[in-house]
Write a structure and sequence with these properties.
Chain A has 317 residues and is an alpha/beta fold. Chain A contains eleven helices and twelve strands. The chains are: A alpha/beta (317), B alpha+beta (602).
């Protein structure tokens, strides 16, 4: 009789223990929600472009219960500043890091790799072959460059005196865009590539000098900052400006026809998907290694199409 | 019916291998679990329906409130448009009058909700506009959607979907999302009526604020679509615009106002719809039932509680069934023991009243059986005793003839002394033989009887043999079966001594050994082979009586001893041809008491 009772008693006690443990450990019974500490270190100063990215990140933070620390760069040496910011965020215990590398420096790459050992790292804007990076969220940069080249050819025909301006940071996105652009503009004389950097005003001056000295009929900018500087510099020069990653501040230049064409990636989506990938990485879910975002070609006549205004003017609260 | 029988047979087949207690536990548990599941399901459904009804009522109330606010806002915008049209434009000659002042006044009163208030000619040129009036060179007003809508149906007011206001030069480069309210208007120019379009650009954030104020829960939300299913407002509008989220607005268009359960997506949801007057916009609230219904964790918890309940029931059922089944199982075990022959095994009388009654009844039945069996055994023993006693009685005529014949010859030969002795001995023999009808007599009488018998036989056989008695004095008071030595002596005489010529010897010993009484009858006669010895007590020859003599075989003696004292007592025969025979009789050493011997079973 005693031996026969052991099994039901054991079952009974085990069930009771399971329920107690379940109640003690189940967050649903404590109204607890996991808060994810995520930091985003972007590749430039706070401007319209990164604001659009941040808006996407904010929405995702709201959706996935993320405490987001968004950090833009402001110093003279972006690479050093970005390395320092990444180290600091990792030391502060960020569970995940979203980073847009501002350059292709090996030291920065090493810092990102090191960070990836302590936190989930998601790259935006650029792509990476680094296996330790959980995911990269960006447009197909080579295709962006190619699309810009095709748009220039479509609007301007074969151009033999085009110039390309780039920050020359060596960042993957810049290299890929340049490669895509040059491959599409190979029909005419290869455009000359100029590296410009510094603050907005300095860049504008550099571009003005460049235009004055070289008199290019077409000036192609490879990112939002150089495009903004090129548009401001060429407003009165008559040079046809094209570029990638437009932002709200350059819309007036598009309306005026200073910028004749821009290939614009969906920065809001990039921000949203980056945070989502970071959260999923923290949760241990399987994350797609390379997430591609969409982009659109915007010309002065197509700024206000339904699709383009949704990309150019993110609809947020 | 056949199927039911077959199923029942199947169940019986499956269950017959299990114990009564197991069956009870299983039955109780199955019934309880099924009951629990039914009750749980019923409660869950009741809870589900009640929650759903409450939720639907709440959402309808909320939508009524949102509709009230939104309708108020839109009517206000329409009043602005009406005021501008009916109070200003209808009363002015635009060739002469300027309406900018009235327009600015209206704008100032409603500036929080308005972005621009503009009047355009039928060619798209600006007649009046506030606060901005310088049209962008790149803008062709006539190609604007709101402009075209105004011309499509000139009597109505038209509400656009949200779009970026891009008409006027703006030094701050501000790009506002607006909802445009446009209408066709009649403009008077020196009595000539021309057409124009009046535009009221409503600040979209005002609509957003109306909807944002509503709190429905973590995953519930409100959105607004127009009559074509185009999104007016959605809390995650940019995600939908960026194709990261999908809202099936076209499906909702098919719904009437009220509550609808929509199972089209991954999760079932409650969709409540309210149509806004005039605009045809629909305010839609969406609640995922997973939010209001128990989630996975709670369901898991409920299942765990259910399992715990089942475990508790198994435990309790086990105890209850054990309480019921154990007395029955004990009873069953006792009955099995009885079946195996343990008729004296005790029958427990515990458990419930029915089981106790059953145990009592079996006990009574067994007692009666035991009594009946004892009576039958006693009767059988008595019958056998009677039979053997009857056989024993055969001694009388045969031996009597021989003895009387011997007495007769003694008288004829003038041996009167011998004849008298023989008559005296014969008389004593008969007295002992009769023994008041008892089968058990004292050893003393039995020895005496054997001595008398040998005396007669020795006379008859003319002293061809001698005999000797060696009897321990302490055996005399002991009890023995009557006339068990005489048949052995008779056999010894007839088969051993008949052909001896004066040197025959019969020795009778009686003694106690290991608590038993022994008689040993030894002769030096012809002896027997082992086969003959073996057949003396068991074979057919034994039953028929070997050879002549009195006709009473050793078999009869053996059987009588078995009947009276059990099979552990009886005869042992050892014999060698030409050497002689020794017969050992073993009996229990019991003091002879004529009052206690041969009693019937009680």
């Amino acid at each position: 009789m005693k031996i026969k009772l052991v099994l039901p008693i054991a079952f009974f006690l085990a069930s009771a223990a399971c329920i107690v443990l379940f109640i003690m450990n189940e967050p649903a019974f404590h109204n607890e929600k996991t808060l994810y500490e995520i930091s985003a270190v972007v590749s430039g100063p706070q401007d319209n472009y990164w604001e659009a990215v941040k808006k996407g990140m904010d929405q995702a933070s709201s959706d996935f219960n993320v405490d987001l620390n968004f950090i833009s760069l402001s110093g003279a040496d972006y690479t050093a500043e970005q390395e320092s910011q990444i180290r600091r965020e990792i030391e502060n215990g960020a569970a995940a890091l979203i980073v847009a590398p501002c350059s292709g420096d090996l030291s920065l790459e090493a810092v990102i790799s090191s960070a990836a050992k302590k936190a989930a790292v998601v790259m935006i804007e650029s792509e990476s072959d680094n296996e330790s990076i959980k995911a990269s969220v960006s447009a197909d940069n080579e295709e962006l460059g190619g699309k810009l080249g095709r748009q220039i050819a479509l609007s301007e025909g074969i151009v033999s005196d085009a110039a390309v301006i780039s920050t020359g940071s060596g960042a993957q996105y810049e290299e890929a865009r340049l490669e895509g652009l040059l491959s599409e503009m190979s029909a005419g004389r290869a455009p000359e590539v100029f590296w410009i950097s510094g603050k907005q005003e300095d860049m504008e001056d550099e571009i003005k000098n460049l235009v004055r000295d070289n008199k290019p009929s077409v000036l192609a900018a490879l990112d939002a900052r150089t495009l903004s500087a090129a548009a401001a510099a060429c407003e009165k020069e008559g040079t046809a400006v094209y570029g990638i990653d437009s932002m709200v501040s350059v819309v007036p230049y598009l309306e005026k026809g200073v910028i004749r064409g821009a290939v614009v990636s969906n920065a809001y989506n990039m921000g949203y998907l980056a945070v989502k990938a970071a959260v999923e990485s923290i949760q241990g879910k399987r994350v797609e290694r390379s997430v591609k975002i969409d982009f659109a070609v915007v010309t002065p006549s197509s700024i206000y199409t339904s699709e383009n205004q949704r990309i150019l003017f993110p609809f947020v609260k | 019916m056949v199927k039911i029988k077959r199923k029942s047979g199947f169940l019986n087949f499956r269950f017959q291998n299990h114990s009564f207690q197991f069956m009870l536990s299983l039955s109780f548990t199955v019934v309880a679990v099924v009951g629990m599941i039914f009750v749980s399901a019923a409660l869950y459904l009741a809870f589900f329906n009640s929650t759903l009804a409450t939720l639907a009522a709440d959402h309808q109330l909320i939508l009524e409130q949102v509709n009230l606010n939104l309708d108020g806002y839109l009517r206000n915008m329409m009043r602005i448009s009406d005021s501008m049209y009916f109070r200003v434009l209808k009363n002015v000659n635009l060739s002469r009058d300027n309406v900018s002042k009235e327009m600015a006044l209206l704008y100032d009163v409603n500036r929080d909700r308005l972005v621009t208030l503009s009047l355009f000619s039928d060619e798209g040129s600006v007649i009046a506009s506030t606060p901005l009036s310088a049209l962008k060179p790149s803008v062709d007003v006539t190609r604007q959607r709101w402009f075209a809508s105004a011309w499509e149906s000139i009597e109505n007011l038209h509400f656009s979907t949200p779009h970026v206001q891009n008409l006027f030069e703006n030094s701050e480069n501000k790009y506002n999302w607006v909802v445009s309210l446009s209408r066709s208007v009649n403009l008077t120019y020196n009595g000539e009526i021309r057409y124009g379009v009046l535009l009221v650009d409503m600040n979209f954030s005002a609509i957003e604020q109306i909807c944002r104020r509503v709190s429905l829960g973590d995953t519930s939300y409100i959105y607004i679509i127009n009559g074509d299913g185009e999104l007016i407002y959605h809390p995650k509008q940019q995600l939908i615009y960026g194709n990261l989220l999908e809202e099936n607005t076209l499906a909702v268009l098919g719904y009437e106002d009220g509550n609808h359960l929509d199972a089209s997506g991954e999760h079932q949801k409650l969709v409540t719809i309210k149509t806004v007057g005039y605009t045809g916009w629909k305010i839609i609230s969406v609640s995922y039932l997973t939010e209001v219904m128990p989630g996975t964790q709670l369901m898991l918890f409920a299942i765990l509680i259910l399992l715990f309940g089942i475990a508790l029931m198994v435990f309790v059922n086990y105890l209850v069934s054990a309480n019921i089944a154990n007395p029955i199982q004990t009873l069953e075990k006792a009955v099995r023991d009885i079946e195996k022959g343990g008729i004296n095994a005790p029958i427990p009388e515990g458990g419930s009243a029915e089981v106790r009654t059953l145990g009592l009844a079996i006990n009574n039945m067994l007692a009666r059986n035991r009594k009946l069996m004892d009576e039958i055994v006693w009767e059988q023993e008595q019958k056998r005793k009677s039979e053997f006693d009857a056989l024993q009685a055969q001694i009388t005529p045969h031996f009597l003839y021989n003895a009387l014949d011997c007495i007769l010859w003694s008288i004829k030969d003038g041996e009167y002394e011998t004849a008298m002795t023989l008559i005296s001995v014969l008389s004593k023999m008969f007295r002992i033989s009769i023994s008041k009808g008892r089968s058990i007599i004292s050893v003393k009488d039995e020895i005496e009887h054997a001595q008398h018998y040998l005396t007669i036989q020795n006379t008859r056989f003319k002293n061809r043999f001698n005999f000797t008695f060696n009897v321990q004095p302490e055996v005399y008071p002991l009890a023995t079966i009557k006339l068990i030595i005489q048949p052995i002596i008779e056999n010894a005489i007839y088969h051993g001594m008949e052909y001896m010529d004066g040197d025959g010897l019969i020795v009778i010993d009686s003694y106690l050994e290991n608590g038993d009484l022994y008689f040993k009858i030894t002769d030096n006669g012809m002896g027997m082979t082992e086969e003959v010895v073996a057949g003396l007590l068991t074979g057919p020859a034994a039953r028929a009586g070997v050879g002549g003599g009195s006709g009473i075989g050793l078999y009869n003696v053996q059987e009588r001893i078995h009947i009276y004292f059990g099979r552990e007592y009886g005869l042992t025969i050892e014999s060698e041809p030409d050497e002689g025979t020794r017969v050992l009789i073993r009996l229990p050493a019991r003091v002879y008491d004529p009052d206690k011997m041969e009693a019937a079973p009680s």
